[in-house]
Structure formats: C-alpha cells, structure tokens
Specification:
Distance between the termini: 48 Å
Order of helices and strands: EHEHHEHHEEEHEHHEEEEEEEEEE
Structural class: alpha/beta
Shape: globular
Largest sheet: 6 strands, antiparallel, barrel
Number of strands: 17
Strand order of the largest sheet: 12-15-14-13-16-17
Low-confidence stretches: 42-49
Radius of gyration: 21 Å
C-alpha cells in the first residue's frame, strides 16, 4: 500500500513542486492549505498575498488540480493566534525580538498539522522547505543543510522533535531554487514564477509596532533613552519600536550614528551606544531543543552558531550552564546578539540544536 503524505501547500512554487515530486516518487499525496489568518477580507488578501492568505488557497487549489491530487483547507486560526501571534506580541512587550516563523513551524506546521494528518490516516507530512533530513550514526535524525546555501532554511527548523522528523519529508532540499522553478515551468504549474514571500505573513506592511498596538490590551509607553553609563539622553516612543542593533528611527541628535545596545523592560529604558558596543563575544540561551544529540552531557563542543536567519554563522564553543541553559563563547565578536531570537548550533552541515537568546 502506498505511503500517504499530507503536503502543506502554501500556494508558492516550493510546496507545489514538493507535492509533485512526492507524487512522482510513488506516494499517495494529499494537499492541505492551512487557514491561519484571523479576519482577512478577499480584497486584503489579494493586495498582500503572503503564504497563508485567501489568494494562497486559490493558487494551491489550482496546483493540486493540475498535478492530480486532492486538496483541502484546514482551519488552524486558533492554534496560529495562540502560538504565533500572541507569542509575537508578548515577546515585544517584554523587550525581546521574536522569530514567529520558528514558532509557526514548531507549533502549527508540525505539531498541529501532523496531528491532524495522522487523524485522517496519513503516514506523515511534507513541506517545501530548503532542508534535508538524515539519520546519523548515533541513530538520531537531524536536519541537514540544503544543497543551496542561498535558500537554506534549516535555521527555522531547529526545534523539530525526533518524532516529527521521522514523519516528515522535505523533497526540495535536494535542489537549487532555479531548478525548482524550472521544474514548475516544465510541468506547467501556474506558480512557476510566483515571487517568494519575504515578510512576516500577519504583518505584511512590516509595521510591527502598529500591529502590536492593535493586538495588545496594554503596551509599554514612552520612556528614557540612556547611554551605557545610565545617563538619560532622550525619550523613546515605547520599547516595542526598538531592537538591538537598530540605528534608524531613533531621532537622537548625537552628531554621529548611534545604536540600540539593549532594552530594559523592567525600567522601560532603551540603551544607546556606539557601533562597537553592538558587538559581543558571548551569549546565553535557554528553551533548548536538541536534535543531532540528546544534550551536551557536560562536554564543551566546538560548533558554528547562527544568531539570526540571515547570519552566516560564527565559530564558537558551547557548554551547559544549567538544566535548560547553554553558554556560548565566540572566537570573534558578533554583531547584534538579540534577546528573543534563536541561536542555532551546527556541526558541519547538521543541526546540533539551539535555543532562545536571553
């Protein structure tokens, strides 16, 4: 009997080709588009696109018809609001800068979709992520970098569990983006040249502070800009408007460029420093997820760490600092280590694990 795979179809070219590839490989493929937007009008959806709007549903449905697979829309609005949108707002209010795509991957695209897929008799799920899954000599499954560094998406997948990995397929990780588009064009998919979604899907205008103000019951108000010595040097609009490393939009007449070096939610202060103050050679993270190993077992390990999605990675040594805490020291200082962002540890091409920067 054919293995049944539910493919999360976002209406983009990557998930569309993923579904086609799996069908070619002999799987019984079912396309599912996750309805996660809260109260979207059709006009708004068409204007803003994104990976989860009404326009995405129509694109996915058309692709499913073209390649000859069933397609369904499943409602994940509640899970998305609780695990992604509310989390995003709460982190900013507490002076941190979250990555909502990581939360979406863990709690919605995998935890919730996989559960729903199993309930309808599927054997697993698949996505259009540029990543690969391999079983290591120690028996554990790990995410491996895709063949294309430019599109690699392993950073956002570090928190997947062994059970989730065992039931996941990522067929496009073996290809370059150009090859995926060529495949889509060759088989006549209407999304072959559809642009990639670049923004956070629920904040398409990139006005994060405006979104938080609309969603939260209470937000921190104006407060003081302070320098590295604690001296007041001006007033800020509210900590939700700032992130570590930020230079633009500060409206401080200092006579030279200055940067946000820290956010103190307890005192409602935003710390300002010079360009060199944004660099550090250490960080601590918690909310750990281990993948290629089951933990550090008291050992120090030399790894490469990525501190944000677009970061190329930097050499460092990590060691356990507590039950749910890892200390990381970089060989060379890195720029803008930002509380709330994920730090992901790699050994070669494999994801060792990661956590949330404190």
């Amino acid at each position: 009997m054919k293995e049944k795979i539910v493919v999360g179809m976002s209406g983009g070219v990557d998930s569309s080709v993923a579904a086609w590839l799996l069908k070619q490989q002999g799987y019984e493929v079912v396309g599912v588009t996750m309805q996660i937007w809260q109260d979207e009008t059709e006009e708004y959806a068409q204007e803003n696109g994104g990976c989860c709007g009404l326009g995405a549903v129509e694109d996915a449905r058309r692709v499913a018809w073209q390649i000859g697979i069933p397609h369904y829309v499943m409602n994940f609005k509640r899970e998305f609001k609780r695990s992604v949108m509310d989390y995003f707002v709460d982190e900013y209010i507490h002076g941190r800068t979250p990555n909502p795509c990581i939360a979406c991957n863990r709690y919605v695209k995998w935890e919730s979709l996989l559960k729903r897929a199993m309930e309808i008799g599927a054997d697993g799920i698949a996505t259009g992520h540029y990543a690969r899954i391999s079983r290591l000599p120690n028996g554990r499954l790990a995410i491996k970098k895709s063949v294309t560094a430019k599109k690699d998406q392993t950073y956002a997948l570090y928190s997947l569990t062994q059970e989730q990995l065992a039931r996941t397929r990522m067929p496009v990780g073996e290809y370059h983006k150009e090859e995926i588009r060529e495949m889509a064009e060759r088989i006549g998919l209407n999304v072959a040249h559809k642009a990639d979604s670049q923004e956070i899907c629920f904040v398409p205008d990139r006005d994060y502070a405006g979104f938080i103000e609309r969603q939260a019951e209470e937000i921190p108000g104006e407060g003081n800009f302070v320098d590295m010595q604690g001296r007041v040097i001006g007033r800020h609009k509210g900590i939700i408007h700032y992130t570590v490393g930020q230079r633009k939009g500060l409206n401080l007449a200092m006579g030279h460029p200055v940067f946000v070096t820290g956010i103190r939610p307890q005192t409602n202060e935003v710390v300002i420093g010079e360009s060199g103050d944004v660099f550090t050679d250490r960080l601590t993270c918690n909310r750990l997820s281990w993948m290629a190993v089951d933990g550090l077992d008291g050992e120090e390990r030399r790894v490469t760490a990525k501190i944000r999605y677009g970061h190329p990675g930097a050499a460092c040594v990590i060691r356990q600092a507590g039950d749910d805490e890892v200390f990381c020291r970089f060989d060379e200082p890195v720029r803008a280590v930002t509380p709330g962002q994920a730090v992901v540890f790699y050994e070669g091409d494999y994801v060792l694990g990661g956590g949330i920067i404190q």
